[in-house]
Amino acid sequence: MKKVVAVVTSPRKNSNSEILADAFLKGAGEAGNETEKIRFSDHNIGFCLACNWCRSHDGVCVQRDDMNPLLLKLLEADVIVLASPVYKSCVSGQLKTFADRMYAINPKLTGVDFYFIASAGSADLDGAMRDMEGIIHIYKNVRNAGRIYGRGLSGPGEAFDSPAYEEAYQMGKGC
């Protein structure tokens, strides 16, 4: 059994990227894995201060917001799913903020499979996928295990009828 954590960074509840992340988690859960979803907008998470306090305090951030407990969840995970809407060919600012705060655990995060989910009204998700891959390139012994492209999803709930929904579900089953 693996521990699968999905980080959903859309500011909109039940967004298309969240629907795809839920499909992934459903598949992973049905395959016998323990699953958890972190919704960025449900938490108080500030920007990284670039103070390096975490480097001399075992990966604990100086800020006393909701991020430190979330960092512990990431360190316990075998699989991390990063899900983001695409704005102007880039990941959401929320995902960038979350990724910046992961700096505190950079030396500790290892042996994790990462999956990326991007959704947008347009078909061009390559820039966002490059952003997501850039988040993990610094970690040792992690794997880019899969990508889910939710193309052409601009209206609420459109992800349910998208081929990306089944793809996310199947990818979750096989993670």
Q: What labels describe this entry?
A:
175 residues, alpha/beta, six-stranded mixed beta sheet, Rossmann fold
CATH architecture field: 3-Layer(aba) Sandwich
In round numbers, the mean pLDDT is 95
What are the segments in which pLDDT stays under 50 over at least 5 consecutive residues?
A: none
Structural class: alpha/beta
Largest sheet: 6 strands, mixed
Helix/strand order, N-terminal first: EHEHEEHEHEH
C-alpha termini separation: 10 Å
Helical amount: 25-40%
Number of strands: 6
Q: Please report which band the strand proportion falls in: under 5%, 5-15%, 15-25%, 25-35%, 35-45% or over 45%.
A: 15-25%
Number of helical segments with 4 or more residues: 5
3D architecture notes:
- It is a single chain.
- This protein is an alpha/beta fold.
- The chain has one domain: Flavodoxin domain (Rossmann fold), CATH 3.40.50.
- It contains five helices and six strands, in the order E-H-E-H-E-E-H-E-H-E-H.
- It has helices spanning 16-30, 67-76, 93-101, 126-136, 163-173; strands at 3-8, 34-39, 79-87, 90-91, 113-119, 143-150.
- Strands 1, 2, 3, 4, 5 and 6 form a six-stranded mixed β-sheet that branches.
- The model has no long low-confidence stretch (mean pLDDT 95).
Quickly describe the structure.
The protein is built from five helices and six strands. With 175 residues, the protein is α/β, with parallel strands linked by helices. Helix 1 runs parallel beside helix 5.
